[in-house]
């Protein structure tokens, strides 16, 4: 499948880019997408949540009052969860949220996500570009020229470009990554996916295995 290559002014360069049908035109597997997105979101959790339980509270273990005859509920030490400053009942503990997912499933999920975006005509191919200095206004002009200024966009570069990354960092609706950082979640979370020519080779090399 061939698509037109645009420049950063949104005009056709006259060149065509070849998109592999094995990557951008497969029957999407929605369950694979679900599993990969679920794993990605789970891995964003640090799992460092912790609350002190009764045994970890520093305080007296003396019984506050006698068991019977007071007319009120029986009570143990001041560390009891029913008192202010006492331990928490079944409080959160540190936990590892990482999930294992087969590499073939992850690869299928990314290809499925790209195929969905391709069928929705949400993929644009642009020529490789550089920015002389990090400047948000210049980057906004590029997005406007490509017609995606008001969309949540994902720009995929072939290699790390610090100026382009810094120029996009203040824009909440735009994200710049390299082809090696491409994930199913980032693809599905974007309304428009912009691929540079340099990124195409890396994507197909990773997903055509």
UniProtKB/TrEMBL annotation:
Keywords: Ribonucleoprotein, Ribosomal protein, RNA-binding, rRNA-binding. GO terms for cellular component: ribonucleoprotein complex; ribosome. Signal peptide: none annotated. The keyword RNA-binding applies. GO terms for biological process: translation. Residues 58-77 are annotated as: Disordered. NCBIfam families: rplD_bact (TIGR03953). Belongs to the universal ribosomal protein uL4 family. This is Large ribosomal subunit protein uL4. It comes from Robiginitalea myxolifaciens.
